Amino acid sequence: MGVQADTDAWPHTGRLLPWMLAGFMAMVWLVPFDAVSLPIPLPLDGKLDRLALGALLLMWVTTLFVVRGAARPRLWFTWIHVAAAALILIVIAGAVLNAHDLVNLGEFTLVLKKLALLLSGVLFFVIVASVVRVSEVPSFITLMLGLSCVAALGILIEYRLHYNPFYQLTAKALPGHVVMPSDLNARDSTGRVQVYGPGGHPLETAALMGLALPFALGRMLDAPDRRQKLINGAISAILVAGAFATLRKTSVIAPAAGVLVLLAYRPRAMFRAFLPFALGMFVMVHVVAPGALGSLTTQLTPNRLVGVLSTQDRASDFDGTKPDYANHVLLGRGYQSYDPHKYRTLDNQYLGLILGVGLLGLAAYLAVLVATGLMAHAGVRSGDPIRGPVALGAAAATAVMIVSTGLFDLLSYPHVPYLFFFIGGLVVACTRPARRPAPAPILTRLEQGAVVQC
Hints:
With about 450 residues, this protein is mainly α. Helices cover about 65% and strands about 0% of the residues. It has helices at about 15-30, 50-65, 80-95, 100-105, 110-130, 135-160, 165-175, 200-220, 225-245, 250-265, 265-290, 290-300, 300-305, 310-320, 320-325, 350-380, 385-405, 415-430, 445-454; strands spanning about 35, 175-180. It has a two-stranded antiparallel sheet. The model is unreliable at about 445-454 (pLDDT under 50).
């Protein structure tokens, strides 16, 4: 079913909430907000995103209760809402049941901080899903791709010039203190330069690029003319170059999952468009990020893939943490309570969830991903010219999220969860039923006679 024209659709609207959502997404893509210490006392490790989300939440609640008509947010609960609520409840239950041990270990505050971050992501999803209209979804996808291109170009600047514009410009533009990563542009144990981009870790930045890439590739496949194909192909190449510039294996493995999903849905279009695009992309990456392809190719060879320290550490994590999750099978020891500064760094969020929230929490987290993927799948199969392309990108992005969760402790960093919840909100906006027209008033016989006489 097509979508009726909306004369009040963002960005051609005076409604404040869509503009606030756009501003929030600009912060997610361009500002290392988790490194900003504001000169404002906020509870539970208050960061810039919590302040921005608080303003967004206040406006949303006010609009929900004050505004009537088409401008009012529309709450429509889906299986994604149910799964996210179940995850929050399991996290709270685990924290309550393990409160005594967590307090004794000095980890209860850490659990509360990580719970606040998770709750922020879920609230953001609820707001996006209720505010964005289906007619606005393509514009928000365009915004996301534009912001991701700017971020990718900033990453390439950092790779070439060893200057991080995100941290440096944020430090100049915002009040408070920006905590610079201690290893920014330094080399790690394998010789890779630490390219952070706007994220709190190169892995997080690589995952951000991977989540946006399927939408650019999907638009390239569905472009109505050669010009649009070239534009979206160029956007895709810029995102790939930005991801590769992080010099992380995640920048190859995670986007590959999204490409495979696109290939499964659109095999003919992918074979026609992707091979020429891939050749041009490799040339572009070699030009704008010299050495990145060679570094990643070396890292992905069988000997380096299983022999480097980071891979060996991932394998040893399962045996090293077995006593911890064996004693807390169902609800875990406390969400994100396995402090890497005290124990070991877990480069696998699935393992971190088993430790923190047990099998029940892991099942709830997987339910969020599966519910998003299934709703996107339904949108792809609908054949709708607006919903279909967005759903295709969301289905592929869900695959990227599933793979990325196994590659690093994804929920410890805020940018990727916010972006995925934003994508999930757009999926809900695409599948939400259209508003029903107001019923015609029922006229009395006297009124009917007056109408006839007129």
